[in-house]
């Protein structure tokens, strides 16, 4: 589905990505992580053809991004910018969603059908002014505009930045639902709790290179990789790393609680009155 | 030092109160974190403390905000800004110079700081924030974390007693976010600065701040020490924010019948708690 082969990219003589190679299959949920300046956003823009590799190849469903028009790639890939205000350009919610649809679909009836179903799915008022919505709502609108076109691949550049916990959960649950229906998700994300909760595979970038590629659990147990990439794992995996042997499989609150209960000395258990 | 009594504010052309009947006392030297979902009134509260409300943003204003006994309603925003420095949410909109040094000098010169004092203030602020090496750098070439530090240095140079920050880490990676909070802690502990920070990352707040305020729908829902606030799992849940996972873990262990001394709010505490449960 997505094939990145020995890709390098340079911004104004400064090498941003060096020799990146990986493959992503249909239906995967992949997180791109790394510190600021590691090359995550650049890589995400190479995946949708907004940027073309200086060397190496990026192929999407067999299409080389250097030889394929961005408009053709856009029929397969939806890209969510970090800041929704860079994406929203119309004065009503309905026009915003319609705008994206009309760029990729010629059939007016189909555009209207997709618009109606998207408005219903997200519960938007079609006449609302996007710029009067909250940041979280604008992010949902940007996402709605993209998924209305039913792309096979979603590339998300920090989709939860600036959102509160409820907004973050709402956005991520929508993305997760799409992924469960077969949409491939590639997400740049700084929030390691979100990565742990949703991604099944992690690509770690450091200084423009692919430092590690593994399952979410493997990466959050790989202390050396995390240290090299200046990444702090989520709290529970961090606690598991500190506690060492016996906690290798504790990634969630529930897993950690049960691992601890199994090792807690008897004097620390409450004696229930009905047990006496 | 800061006394907020019955503060209610409704923006012009809005049909609901952005903050409603907020009572809050913040002592000198406090490090307060404010958290809450979007629209909870956090930024409005910050604006009421630095005088942008009511002086620059029109609306219906009730109650009072006093800083060192002076009602902000009766004092000009420029006078307030000598005591209260603000780092805004959108850091790029705050930067007006192209070079770090000029950014810090801008405030000092506009406040008519005597010429012979300027160098000491400039180098002192750069040093306090740990960015002396960036003095002559172009701001547009800096990372998000470095820009955030420049914004803080520009405020520190004016020597305010109170520092307000509105989501200073929203665009930063975890390491840069940690660096900013370590800096804030140092400014609070070593330099005695009163710090009020609006932040969505509960894990950072629970590790660094002394007091926590939770807002919802314009109201102050909870306020107190981080530990006392995070004990209120039901109200925290209703407020639309998440607990640090170590706090959720200790609450879950209690549900499973494990006797704990209290809720863990930091990773270090959770680690100590786990070791105590398992070993002599």
Please explain how this structure is put together.
The complex is a heterodimer of chains A (276) and B (280). With 276 residues, chain A is an alpha/beta fold. In chain A, 39% of the residues lie in helices and 22% in strands. Chain A has a six-stranded mixed sheet, with helices on both faces. The longest helix of chain A is centred in the middle third of the chain and has 16 residues, at 165-180. Chain B is of the alpha/beta class. Chain B contains 13 helices and ten strands. A six-stranded mixed sheet of chain B has the order 6-7-8-3-9-10, sandwiched between helices. A four-stranded antiparallel sheet of chain B has the order 2-1-4-5. In chain B, strand 1 and strand 2 (19-26) form a beta hairpin. In chain B, helix 5 packs parallel to helix 7. The relative contact order of chain B is 0.15. The mean pLDDT of chain B is 92. The interface between A and B is large, with 40 and 40 residues.
Radius of gyration of chain B: 20 Å
State the share of residues found in helices of chain A, binned by percent.
Answer: 25-40%
How many individual helices of chain A?
11
Instruction: Please bin the fraction of helical residues of chain B.
Output: 40-55%
Q: Using DSSP, what is the number of strands of chain A? A: 10
Strand content of chain A: 15-25%
- The residue ranges of chain A in which pLDDT falls below 50 over 5 or more consecutive positions are none
What's the helix-strand series of chain B? EEEHHEEHEHHHHEHEHEEHHHH
What is the topology, as strand order, of the major beta sheet of chain A? 6-7-8-3-9-10
Kindly state the number of beta strands of chain B.
10
Mean pLDDT of chain A: 91
Radius of gyration of chain A: 21 Å
SSE-based structural type of chain B: alpha/beta
Major protein interface: A-B, 40 and 40 residues
Main β-sheet, spatial strand arrangement of chain B = 6-7-8-3-9-10
First and last CA, distance of chain A: 62 Å
Number of helices of chain B: 13
Straight-line N-to-C gap of chain B: 46 Å
Write the element-wise H/E pattern of chain A from the N-terminal end onward: EEEHEEHEHHHEHEHEEHHHH
Low-confidence sequence ranges of chain B: none
């Amino acid at each position: 589905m997505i094939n990145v082969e020995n890709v390098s990219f340079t911004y104004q003589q400064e090498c941003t990505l060096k020799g990146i190679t990986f493959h992503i299959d249909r239906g995967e949920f992949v997180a791109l992580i790394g510190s600021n300046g590691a090359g995550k956003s650049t890589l995400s823009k190479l995946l949708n053809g907004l940027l073309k590799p200086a060397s190496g190849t990026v192929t999407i469903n067999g299409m080389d991004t250097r030889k394929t028009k961005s408009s053709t790639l856009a029929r397969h890939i939806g890209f969510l910018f970090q800041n929704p205000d860079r994406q929203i350009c119309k004065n009503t919610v309905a026009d915003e969603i319609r705008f994206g649809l009309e760029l990729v679909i010629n059939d007016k009836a189909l555009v209207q059908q997709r618009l109606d179903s998207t408005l219903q799915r997200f519960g938007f008022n079609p006449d609302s002014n996007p710029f009067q919505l909250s940041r979280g709502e604008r992010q949902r609108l940007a996402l709605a505009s993209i998924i209305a076109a039913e792309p096979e691949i979603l590339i998300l550049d920090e989709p939860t930045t600036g959102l509160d916990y409820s907004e973050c959960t709402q956005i991520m649950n929508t993305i997760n639902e799409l992924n469960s229906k077969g949409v491939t998700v590639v997400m740049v994300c700084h929030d390691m709790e979100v990565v742990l909760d949703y991604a099944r595979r992690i690509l770690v970038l450091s200084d423009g290179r692919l430092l590690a590629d593994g399952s979410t659990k493997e990466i959050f147990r790989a202390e050396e990789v995390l240290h090299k990439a200046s990444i702090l794992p989520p709290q529970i995996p961090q606690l598991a790393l500190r506690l060492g042997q016996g906690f290798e499989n504790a990634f969630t609150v529930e897993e950690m609680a049960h691992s601890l209960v199994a090792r807690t000395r008897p004097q620390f258990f409450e004696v229930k009155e009905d047990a006496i | 030092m800061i006394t907020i009594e019955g503060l209610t504010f409704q923006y012009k052309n809005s049909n609901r109160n952005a903050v409603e009947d907020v009572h809050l006392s913040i002592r000198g030297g406090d490090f307060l974190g404010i958290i809450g979902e979007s629209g909870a009134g956090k930024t409005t509260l910050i604006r009421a403390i630095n005088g942008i409300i009511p002086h620059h943003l029109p609306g219906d204003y009730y109650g009072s905000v006093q800083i060192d006994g002076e009602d902000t309603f009766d004092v000009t925003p420029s006078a307030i800004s000598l005591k209260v420095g603000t780092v805004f949410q959108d850091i790029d909109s705050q930067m007006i110079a192209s070079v770090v040094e000029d950014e810090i000098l801008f405030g000092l010169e506009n406040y008519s700081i005597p010429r012979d004092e300027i160098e000491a203030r400039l180098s002192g602020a750069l040093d306090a924030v740990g960015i002396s090496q960036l003095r002559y750098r172009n701001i547009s070439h800096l990372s998000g974390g470095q820009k955030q530090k420049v914004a803080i240095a520009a405020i520190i140079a004016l020597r305010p007693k109170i520092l307000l920050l509105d989501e200073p880490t929203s665009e930063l990676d975890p390491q840069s976010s940690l660096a900013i909070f370590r800096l804030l802690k140092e400014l609070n502990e070593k330099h005695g600065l009163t710090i009020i920070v609006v932040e969505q990352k509960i894990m950072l707040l629970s590790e660094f701040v002394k007091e926590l305020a939770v807002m919802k729908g314009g109201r102050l829902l909870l306020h107190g020490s981080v530990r006392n606030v995070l004990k209120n799992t039901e109200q925290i849940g209703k407020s639309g924010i998440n607990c640090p996972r170590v706090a959720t873990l200790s609450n879950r262990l209690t549900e499973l019948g494990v006797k704990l001394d209290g809720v863990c709010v930091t990773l270090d505490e959770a680690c100590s708690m786990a070791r105590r449960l398992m070993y002599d």
